[in-house]
Write a structure and sequence with these properties.
The protein is an all-beta fold and 344 residues long. The protein contains one helix and 28 strands.
């Protein structure tokens, strides 16, 4: 196994756990408190910096983004700076342009942001903002030229050119539509970035969009179910309880070599969908039971390992990836409400 670190946000405890990956599994090095309500973060591995979305607390009237320094030996995270977000906390943060730009999407606030990041890790006030109902995620292309914001409520991906001055200019068309009522949530690029895969929350499907690398424009192609049919889950209805109603509840998506992985929270499964030569997806080869209510999971850089967290669990599961199969290596204590995972 690799010698990387794994960070896990425990929203119920307002903490982030740091694990080391060893030949024996995961070794918990530290648990850093004080990350109020943190449910997502972005990691700049090269600079050893972590950018965590935090909610308002007794000392801070506004939500914000907290910059923390990661000690790779002890696993400790030390706060360095904080930028306030009066519009509300981010549900998703991602980095681009070698860590010099931070993107964010706010679900409750219904806005997305672009921020500059200084050499010292200080995050600027937003240089650009966009507004769509219930934005759930945002990623930039590998070259940092295009940014994609996903709106769960309005079933679309807003597509932009990201300028040198960190402005956002809408592409033509300005949005790529997802199927009505599907609830697009998280997205992932194919290795060549000619395909974008989007997991839907309400239908539990992986949507496939064709991407023009030059223009950045997305075109919807097709959808492949990514939830277990034996569970007989029903189409979700916005603002209704998925568990109580036995609804589909898609969450997170990541790629390994030749496989798209997708989590579903009601049945607590990870689905494996093989990627065909043309970028299309085969029906899931199987569904691995995992931590209860798996909102977040992550894949190691070498794509050999997968770590999954569960919102209704206090442990994380470590798997060895073997094609479209997962082999459980162990389960490890982390904290309450674990919902975001990243390798570092």
């Amino acid at each position: 196994m690799s010698s990387s670190l794994v960070l896990v946000a425990n929203a119920g405890d307002s903490s982030i756990s740091t694990f080391r990956v060893t030949d024996a599994g995961l070794e918990r090095l530290a648990v850093t408190a004080g990350t109020t309500g943190c449910s997502n973060f972005a990691v700049d591995v090269d600079r050893g910096l972590v950018y965590a979305s935090v909610k308002a607390d007794d000392d801070n009237p506004d939500a914000g983004i907290l910059t923390l320094a990661l000690d790779r030996e002890t696993g400790a995270l030390t706060p360095l700076s904080r930028v306030a977000l009066p519009g509300g906390a981010m549900n998703y943060l991602s980095l681009t342009r070698q860590g010099s730009v931070l993107l964010g999407a706010a679900y409750s606030g219904g806005y997305g942001i672009v921020c500059a990041v200084g050499d010292d890790g200080v995050v600027s006030a937003p240089t650009a903002e966009v507004r769509f109902p219930r934005l759930h995620s945002v990623l930039a292309s590998g070259d940092g030229r295009h940014a994609y914001f996903v709106s769960l409520e309005t079933d679309l991906i807003a597509q932009y050119a990201l300028g040198d001055d960190l402005s956002l200019s809408a592409l033509d068309p300005a949005t790529a539509d997802a199927p009505a009522g599907s609830g697009p949530r998280h997205l992932a690029f194919s290795d060549d970035e000619r395909t974008v895969y989007v997991l839907t929350e309400f239908t539990g499907e992986v949507l496939r969009f064709r991407r023009d690398p030059a223009s950045g424009i997305l075109d919807f192609v097709d959808a492949t179910p990514a939830h277990d049919p034996s569970e007989k889950l029903r189409h979700s209805v916005i603002d209704e309880d998925p568990r109580e109603n036995h609804y589909v509840w898609g969450a997170d998506i990541h790629l390994t070599d030749g496989v798209v992985w997708a989590s579903e929270r009601t049945a607590s499964t990870l689905a494996a969908l093989r990627i065909d030569a043309d970028g299309s997806l085969s029906a899931p080869t199987g569904f691995a039971a995992t931590e209860e209510q798996p909102r977040g999971f992550a894949v190691s850089d070498d794509r050999a390992l997968l770590v999954a967290a569960g919102e209704r669990s206090t442990t994380v599961s470590l798997y060895r990836v073997d094609g479209a199969d997962l082999h459980l290596q162990g389960r490890y204590e982390t904290g309450r409400g674990a919902n975001w995972v990243r390798f570092a």
